[in-house]
Amino acid sequence: MQLNQIVLTNYRNYNQLTLDFSPKLNVFVGDNAQGKTNLLESIYVLSLTKSHRSNHEKELIQWNKEFARIEGNISKKNGDIDLTMIVSNKGKKTKVNGLEQTKLSQYIGYLNVILFAPEDLSLVKGSPQHRRKFLDMEIGQINSQYLHHLSNYQSVLKQRNQYLKKSAYNKTHDAVYLDVLNEQLAQEGSFVLFSRLYFIGLLEKWANTIHESISYGKEKLNITYKTSLELTEEMTQEELFHLLMKEFKQSEARDLAQLTTSVGPHRDDLVFMVNGQNVQTYGSQGQQRTTALSVKLAEIELINDEIGEYPILLLDDVLSELDDARQVQLMEFIDNKLQTFLTTTSVSHLNDKLNIKPEVFYVTNGEVERMSEDVDG
């Protein structure tokens, strides 16, 4: 798939902007705080309806304006599609070919993107919450039902936690009502858990192959799902449901004492092992960055496997965080395979790393000048 054109209205520091893109490599060049990352972010928001930089959507709207709008035309194997994402004080509105979508989960998945930003290098070393968010965003792109069940799970989880606090305040609880919440939570949680385990199995297959190549055959990468549940690879969704029901019931006394739900997918994590050693705890910074790079590149192949076409790759100033060897490996992987958008403060350092001629956009204070040229020009 590819993004042919984007139109921004009242978005960040852009009043009105229309850009047409190359199907290969597009480079946004500019000093810091000029708006190049805003352009990359707008593609991400068009795809996933939320920013990777902020949880406050009103920040996307230009100062003193009532809304921000992103419009994009994409080409997929089945034809062209027009997407629209509008953010206002009233919330979000999405359209596909002019038709408003009633749920965000119906919209997400039309445009698939993989983002690799400096903060993604902390995927390995960062918090479990960061890794759960990674799982949720990436699975949601290839399985719209996942986001629906995840949202339901989070809603029931909130109800259960509120009831635990209420029960502690009243010094009594309704066991029947808690059983109802347990069943609802297990129903939604079993879908979330089953989807995650399936995704991780595919991700590990691709990530290990890529990691072995990047490390010149010296390292083997394994990805495991860390949970308090006693899982087996053969478990069905129904078996996961019964397992969660058992765990929620057994943890009731502890949960009532701690005023929170202590088990479930919202507590789980990923573990990355290189040559049998936990790279999060014992790996060098180089190993951790190679692992993060392998995982990101694996996502690209995984999505192509699942939907039959490559996603769009967004690289937000990530080259400056990688050494020369990893930069070369990344650019060789991209070469003519998928449409890529890259932000950087200079194109001169790309000289020896590109085999294709990029489309270069110079960004200065919210103004964009397009210039097709050799990177050393």
From TrEMBL:
<keyword id="KW-0234">DNA repair</keyword>
<keyword id="KW-0742">SOS response</keyword>
<dbReference type="GO" id="GO:0009432">
    <property type="term" value="P:SOS response"/>
</dbReference>
<dbReference type="InterPro" id="IPR003395">
    <property type="entry name" value="RecF/RecN/SMC_N"/>
</dbReference>
<protein>
    <recommendedName>
        <fullName>DNA replication and repair protein RecF</fullName>
    </recommendedName>
</protein>
<keyword id="KW-0227">DNA damage</keyword>
<keyword id="KW-0067">ATP-binding</keyword>
<comment type="similarity">
    <text>Belongs to the RecF family.</text>
</comment>
<dbReference type="Pfam" id="PF02463">
    <property type="entry name" value="SMC_N"/>
</dbReference>
<dbReference type="GO" id="GO:0005737">
    <property type="term" value="C:cytoplasm"/>
</dbReference>
<dbReference type="GO" id="GO:0005524">
    <property type="term" value="F:ATP binding"/>
</dbReference>
<dbReference type="InterPro" id="IPR018078">
    <property type="entry name" value="DNA-binding_RecF_CS"/>
</dbReference>
<feature type="binding site">
    <location>
        <begin position="30"/>
        <end position="37"/>
    </location>
    <ligand>
        <name>ATP</name>
    </ligand>
</feature>
<dbReference type="InterPro" id="IPR001238">
    <property type="entry name" value="DNA-binding_RecF"/>
</dbReference>
<dbReference type="GO" id="GO:0006260">
    <property type="term" value="P:DNA replication"/>
</dbReference>
<keyword id="KW-0963">Cytoplasm</keyword>
<keyword id="KW-0235">DNA replication</keyword>
<keyword id="KW-0547">Nucleotide-binding</keyword>
<comment type="function">
    <text>The RecF protein is involved in DNA metabolism; it is required for DNA replication and normal SOS inducibility. RecF binds preferentially to single-stranded, linear DNA. It also seems to bind ATP.</text>
</comment>
<dbReference type="GO" id="GO:0003697">
    <property type="term" value="F:single-stranded DNA binding"/>
</dbReference>
<dbReference type="InterPro" id="IPR027417">
    <property type="entry name" value="P-loop_NTPase"/>
</dbReference>
<keyword id="KW-0238">DNA-binding</keyword>
<feature type="domain" description="RecF/RecN/SMC N-terminal">
    <location>
        <begin position="3"/>
        <end position="352"/>
    </location>
</feature>
<dbReference type="GO" id="GO:0006302">
    <property type="term" value="P:double-strand break repair"/>
</dbReference>
<dbReference type="GO" id="GO:0000731">
    <property type="term" value="P:DNA synthesis involved in DNA repair"/>
</dbReference>
<dbReference type="InterPro" id="IPR042174">
    <property type="entry name" value="RecF_2"/>
</dbReference>
